[in-house]
Write a structure and sequence with these properties.
By secondary structure, the protein is of the alpha/beta class. The protein has helices spanning 28-33, 38-48, 67-72, 90-102, 114-124, 148-159, 176-180, 212-226, 239-248, 272-281, 309-315, 326-330, 344-350; strands spanning 2-8, 56-61, 78-81, 107-112, 130-134, 164-174, 186-196, 232-235, 258-261, 264-267, 286-291, 298-300, 320-323, 338-339, 352-359, 362-368. It has 13 helices and 16 strands.
Length: 379
């Protein structure tokens, strides 16, 4: 199942009919007075656009923060919490976003305005995929679909395993008090990771195919730019990952697993026990960077058995970073990326929708460990 998190800001959009230029300062009584909550209706419209609801499980907070909109669209959501007060506020949105991220959803759909986007950013930061349903008065942020129906269309592409770009988009908001006095003051608050429509092979050559050597260099540049000195990086085998080592000027084992930190080589061609020792001795975060085998789509269990279940669990399931060219992904013809770690429980835990880095500041969301129809795969 595609696990969809849902957050609805019940107050979003109420300020428009009241000519208040926003909803940040509206008291909870306004929510009581509103007969039809705009944000809930628009969230329901987005969910109603899902063509295969039997492939989706919705997770949300109780009542107006998500449950009502999901039920109105015909879903039976899993309730993971509730607002701390009778009428939710910004902190409830932050807590809901954090709870949904921690519950393992594949993407968070949220309905609101710029204030809601700020709160979601506070909850999940820039590394977790989200999508906004426009429902607020102020809509300066670039994290929203153009309409609830467009949000539904994007969800369908994700659920069907089609290539959907994900990229960072700005979260911006204005000062409502200044706006009411005729002054527009916009402020940048951060960036959210959102799915975006577009031609996923924009930089093409030779009858629309990628120039693979250049794309691999772009992928490596993206990874190297994001590296930090506190993280231990485990580099899996393959030509795509080799480019990362080449950009760092380090020796690489094409068919083995290498470890680096702070731009320095820790070890070449390490085995399972050596990898476990590196992880145990390291006090900071760990990233495992792997790529897919062309044609097969395996990211674990083919040529990188050193990355055993013990190694993956020691590093953390969230440590895995997948890199692949879009040509390699499109050649799968909708089939998922596969994990075959020889541990069925771990394989199931790794199944779902995952970000795949496909270029410089370019990524898609693609299914892992699922069959082409999006059903859970038994290993």
């Amino acid at each position: 199942m595609f696990k969809l998190g849902l957050v609805v800001n019940p107050l979003a959009g109420i300020g428009g009919p009241l000519a208040l230029k926003g909803s940040d300062d509206i008291v909870a009584a306004a929510a009581i007075a509103a007969k039809d909550l705009r944000s809930s209706l628009r969230a329901t419209a987005a969910l109603a656009g899902i063509a295969t609801p039997d492939k989706v499980q919705i997770y949300c907070f109780a009542g107006a923060m998500g449950e009502s909109a999901a039920a109105a669209a015909g879903f039976s959501p899993i309730i993971i919490g509730e607002a701390l007060q009778q009428h939710s506020n910004a902190e409830d949105t932050v807590l809901a976003a954090m709870a949904l991220r921690d519950s393992g959803v594949d993407l968070i759909l949220f309905a609101g305005g710029d204030g809601t986007a700020r709160d979601v950013f506070r909850g999940v930061g820039s590394q977790f995929p989200v999508l906004g349903v426009p429902a607020g008065v102020k809509m300066h942020s670039g994290v929203y679909a153009v309409s609830p129906q467009a949000a539904g269309d994007l969800l369908n592409r994700l659920i069907d395993g089609l290539l959907v770009h994900v990229g960072l988009a700005e979260v911006r908001d204005i000062d409502e008090q200044a706006f009411r006095q005729g002054r527009v003051t916009s402020k940048f608050y951060g960036e959210l990771l959102v799915p975006t429509e577009g031609h996923f092979l924009q930089q093409t050559k030779n009858s629309g195919r990628e120039v693979e050597v250049l794309v691999i260099q772009d992928i490596a540049a993206d990874i190297v730019e994001s590296m930090d000195d506190d993280t231990l990086y485990i580099i899996g085998p393959g030509t795509t990952t080799r480019a990362i080592m080449e950009q760092l000027g380090l020796d690489n084992t094409l068919l083995g697993v290498d470890v680096i930190q702070s731009g320095q080589l820790i070890g070449n061609d390490l085995n399972e026990q050596q990898l476990l020792a590196c992880i145990t001795e390291h006090s900071g975060p760990v990233k495992i960077i792997i790529t897919a085998i062309g044609g097969q789509g395996h990211i674990l269990g083919r040529g990188n058995q050193q990355l055993s279940p013990s190694v993956i669990r020691a590093a953390g399931l969230e440590s895995i970073v997948v890199v692949a060219t879009k040509t390699k992904i499109t050649e799968l013809e909708g089939r998922p990326l596969l994990v075959d770690s020889n541990d069925p429980q771990l394989d199931q835990q790794l199944s779902g929708y995952r970000q795949v880095i496909t270029g410089y500041h370019d990524a898609i969301i693609y299914p892992v460990g699922l069959n082409a129809n999006g059903d859970a795969k038994t290993f």
